[in-house]
Amino acid sequence: MTRDESKNHGENLTIFFSVFDSLFGKCLIASTEKGVCNILFADTVKEAENDLKKRWPKAKIQKSTKPEHEKIKKYFSDPKKFPIPEISFHLRGTPFQLKVWEKLLQLAPSGSVTSYGVIAEKLGGKNMSRAVGAAVGQNPIGYLIPCHRVIKGTGEIGEYHWGSSRKEKMLQYEASQERAYRRKKVIERQQIHSTKN
Q: Which helix (H) or strand (E) holds 106?
């Protein structure tokens, strides 16, 4: 996103959004002509829309479902069945925030967690945990840029822009899906071994 678009809070930008029910509450997807700019979660549609408007007070906001919205909706219907959609992002953030979000995209596999301190070290500064935490909290793309996988060094869940209970639910869901996937692979290997014998 250009510096002017960021400073002007979306002035002269048209943002299209749609809302659907997800495993984690109402999910609002917003995009510009350049790419997805927000994935937000809320308990109600009104709450999600207000969150979007606060982020883009000067943008022209239209309710309209775009193809990339459908891709994301399909992915959320069964994250293990459907691959993460190939979509373009249109992000607003400082250079440091963008670096932190890029590190979040490298978190793998699903179900794993890391800490603010670990990310700070990867960025070259052990004393940057607070700055990393602030950048994680400003992540505009919920779940797909997995800020929910960052927890405190003590092992506590920590805060989350859309509620710590929602964060915990996301982590529990991913962990259960990962366990199910591993069990499936074990059974498949056993079946192959049995067939060979």
A: none
**Distance, CA of 87 to chain centre:** 13
48-55 contacts: CB < 8 A, separation 24 or more?
Answer: 48/19, 49/17, 49/19, 52/15, 52/17, 52/28, 55/10, 55/140
- What is the 8-class DSSP label of residue 81? T
Q: What is the pLDDT of residues 66-94, one digit of tens each?
A: 999 999 999 988 777 777 888 999 999 99
Which amino acid is present at 124?
G
Q: How far apart are CA 11 and CA 59, in angstroms?
A: 5
Q: Check: CB of residue 76 under 8 Å from CB of residue 179.
A: no
**Type of residue at 3:** R
Q: Which of 34, 18, 22 has the alpha carbon at shortest distance from 74?
A: 22
Place of tokens 């440091």: 96
Residue type, 140: P
Which amino acids are annotated catalytic?
A: 147
pTM for the model stands at 0.85
12, amino acid identity: N
